[in-house]
UniProtKB/TrEMBL annotation:
It comes from Pseudoduganella ginsengisoli. This is Response regulator. Keywords: DNA-binding, Phosphoprotein, Transcription, Transcription regulation, Two-component regulatory system. One of its GO terms (biological process) is regulation of DNA-templated transcription. Pfam families: Response_reg. The lineage of its organism: Bacteria, Pseudomonadati, Pseudomonadota, Betaproteobacteria, Burkholderiales. Residues 9-127 form the Response regulatory domain. The modification 4-aspartylphosphate is found at D60. Coiled coil: none annotated. It comes from the Bacteria. One of its GO terms (cellular component) is protein-DNA complex. The keyword Phosphoprotein applies.
Length: 130
């Protein structure tokens, strides 16, 4: 791999090809390395087979095969992943969905359509070194 390993690595789980490409472009322009997973099973595989822990996960809720709630359950069940920040990115806007995501272990919840500058600010907040 020729990518600079010193750049933070972000796992983006998004089934909408257009949105995932926008996220990849935005994040790479900010200097992040990005891995895309297009559905819940691809996300599960990326988590279970990860050679490197991501600095952050951007996770859609409505996904084929396994939804975002199932994926965050998989993430939080793995001891090494417990401290990885997870930001849910979804069109689901009800209080019930937001509470469910936060209770499942999400660190934050961003509603689509998102504002790029706001999303990047949230990403930076979670990637700051203590």
């Amino acid at each position: 791999m020729t990518e600079d390993a010193s750049k933070p690595f972000i796992l983006v789980v998004e089934d909408d090809e257009h949105i995932s490409q926008i996220l990849k472009f935005m994040l790479e322009r900010q200097g992040y390395r990005v891995q895309l997973a297009a559905d819940g099973m691809a996300a599960r595989d990326a988590v279970e087979q990860a050679a490197e822990l991501p600095a952050l996960v951007l996770l859609d809720v409505m996904l084929p095969y396994l939804d975002g709630f199932e994926v965050i359950g998989i993430i939080r069940a793995l001891p090494a992943w417990k401290q990885v920040p997870v930001v849910m990115l979804t069109a689901k806007t009800t209080e019930r969905d937001i509470v469910r995501a936060l209770d499942a272990g999400a660190n934050d919840y961003v509603v689509k359509p998102f504002q790029p500058a706001e999303l990047l600010a949230r990403v930076r907040r979670y990637l700051r070194q203590p």
